[in-house]
Amino acid sequence: LAGKKPIVVFVLGGPGSGKGTQCANIVQHFHYTHLSAGDLLRAEIKSGSENGTMIQNMIKEGKIVPSEVTIKLLKKAMLESGNDKFLIDGFPRNEENRAAFEAVTGIEPEAVLFFNCPEQEMEKRLLSRNQGREDDNMETIRKRFKVFLESSFPVIEYYKAKGKVREIYAAKPIEEVFEAVKVVFTPEDE
Ligand code: UP5
Ligand code: MG
């Protein structure tokens, strides 16, 4: 990622809070490339890479994959995109992820979108998603919620202290959530 420093917006929130859905809306209106860390990891499993089995086991348990693995995938996708503005969805998930990304890329996020959603609503969405995700079962969902609260939420607090968090209440219809999301972006992003 030599040359001009990319602009990065981290898109965070609990499992099923709507990160992927809203990123898909954002890229239709603004010139960002959407990179879902979870999607990149699932593609890595499918590709039959040497890390595939390890990644699959971690996702099944709702655990956080070692940051070297995730950061390598993110860096590759950033380079391949040809863009310099990114929505990084579902990463960083813990303090170590965050520190490693900053150390390796030298990038600090421009802003952090935080989709705040009650667990009951997230649970309902995940159980009715029906996309065959191996982690969308009650047992794994409980683990994902626990990891979110214990490991991922502190990352949001870290950025809150830096004044970077744009918190959005996410338990509303998709279009209403997007109205609140739009405000975060500027006409220059169009
Ligand atoms: N939906 C969305 N918005 C709605 C709304 N406003 N009203 C009603 N329904 C709404 O949405 C989930 C479902 O809800 C969909 O069916 C949608 O239509 C509906 P989605 O937009 O997919 O929510 P999202 O927040 O993206 O949920 P997701 O399940 O992807 O979040 P997770 O954070 O759990 O999953 P992710 O893919 O990021 O990570 C999966 C696993 O990968 C992690 O648990 C971890 O094991 C691993 N991982 C790492 O180890 N490191 C990483 O950096 C990233 C992932
Ligand atoms: Mg997602």
TrEMBL record:
The note on cofactor binding and number reads: Binds 1 Mg(2+) ion per monomer.
User: Where ATP is bound, by residue?
Assistant: 16-21, 129, 172
Which EC number(s) does UniProt give?
Answer: 2.7.4.14
Q: Which residues does CMP bind?
A: 97
Gene Ontology molecular-function annotations: ATP binding; nucleobase-containing compound kinase activity; phosphotransferase activity, phosphate group as acceptor
Partners and quaternary state?
Answer: Monomer.
Protein name from the UniProt record? UMP-CMP kinase
